[in-house]
Each structure stands twice: as C-alpha cells, then as structure tokens.
Design goal:
Blueprint lengths: L1 E10 L5 H14 L6 H14 L3 E11 L5 E3 L2 H14 L10 E2 L5 H14 L4
Antiparallel strand pairs: 1-2, 2-3, 2-4
Helix pairs in contact: 1-2
Length: 123
Amino acid sequence: MIYAISWVFDYDYYYSAKSTSDRILAEMSENNEPMTKDMFSEKLEHNLREQTGIEMTMDPLAVWTTKGQLISNNKKYIKNAINDFFIINGMENIYDRKFPVEYDTVGFYVAQKLFHSYYTQYF
C-alpha cells in the first residue's frame, strides 16, 4: 500500500525565536550582563535547542494499492489501517501523538518556511 500524509505544525509563540530573543534581552538587561552578539546568539541557540515551540502531527490523506488504485481517502479508515499495521509489526503508532520539532532539523526548517510563507516573518 502507498500512503499520502500531510504534516501539521502547531506553533507556540511563547517559544518562538522572536519571543525567546525578547526574554533573553530582558534577562540580560535585568542582570546587567554585557550584551555581546556572541553571548546573545549562544543563549538563543541554547533555548531553541531545549524548546522550539513547534510540534508536528501527521494527518493521513489517502491510501492506494501499489498498482495506483485508490483504496480509500476516508481518514478514519486510513488511521485504523495504519494503527493495525503498527500493532502487527510491534511498532509505536506515530499518528496518535504530537512530536516536538527539534532545532536545526529538516522538520524545523520546513516549519519555519511554512510559517514564513504565510506570515512573511520567521517563527
């Protein structure tokens, strides 16, 4: 079988680079720390590696036979078929949970680009 899926990204603005940058600058100012570019960049990257504020789920769209015949585009049917596949093979079902998107990964850059294409700014 061939599956088509869609990635769905959830964004938490509190952890965005902009919001995190603002918090770091306020904290550095409050603590009278020198605001060097290197120190700021290091703190920002550290915070983003801990939490990007982006989570991803996968939404199944359709399933076909290997000969290209549509089996179903009913999401409930597809999820049940995928659940059965994971159970039979003793694997964890990735469709029933959200994944945190880690910093500096393909998923992170895809999520950033999608956000930018809609809001014309980076998350």
